[in-house]
Amino acid sequence: MGSRKCGGCLSCLLIPLALWSIIVNILLYFPNGQVSYAASNKLTNYVWYFEGICFSGVMMLMVAVVLLVLDNESRYKCCQSENCTKKYMTMLSIIFSALGIAFSGYSLVISALGLLQGPYCRTLDGWEYAFEDTSGRFLTDSSMWSQCLEPTHVVEWNMILFSILIALSGLQVIVCLVRISIQLSKILCGTYSVIIQPGII
Residue 126 in 3-state DSSP? Predict the structure, then answer.
């Protein structure tokens, strides 16, 4: 019962994390609240991978809903034996938790790449990725940020939002990993007995 409640709490935690991922990803399309840059495709290419909106957002919401249904396993029976039903639900929970890791892991990697690449901005030489060849050095050297003339403060904008996406995706990965460890412990530690009781046919 305790592990079921724990699993349910973890599944519920995925919902706000997914909603925040969607919000943060949407904000990346509007530097300083301006829509003109998205309309003219003057944004870093990594925002078009929809990592926060689709993968750590909508897809994670779907995973969270399925996991919440599976956590309430007492209402559902897929086979005659209650023990069989619990095992089936546990395996499904592991599979969907693994999918959650894949979705959030994708978002984490793409967000990290977007952070390291830096923003697409207007410099004295025109529109370009001003920090693409710095290997992320610009992240700790604020004196370089003035190279981006437009959008205003786009370096800070991207750094903050991509960092938040990385944190949110990382938390989702951790939650799903904890869920998998809980479900595996049920199987490996013999929570679901496979021994047929005497007198039961």
Answer: strand
User: In this structure, which amino acid lies at residue 109?
Assistant: V
Q: Tell me the pLDDT tens digit for each residue of 116-130.
A: 999 999 999 999 999
pTM above 0.85, yes or no: yes
SS3 content of the chain, % helix, strand, coil (to 5): 70, 5, 25
Up-side HSE of residue 59: CA atoms within 13 Å toward CB? 21
d(CA 8, CA 3): 8
Sign of the alpha-carbon dihedral angle for 56, 57, 63, 65: positive
> Whose structure tokens read 């994708």?
106
**Spatial separation of the C-alpha atoms in residues 66 and 92, rounded to whole Å:** 9
Write b or e for each residue in 48-72: b if 16 or more Cβ atoms lie within 10 A of its Cβ, otherwise e: ebebbbbbbbbbbbebbebbbbbbe
| Tokens matching residue 41 | 């495709």
Q: What is the pLDDT of residues 173-193, one digit of tens each?
A: 999 999 999 888 877 876 554
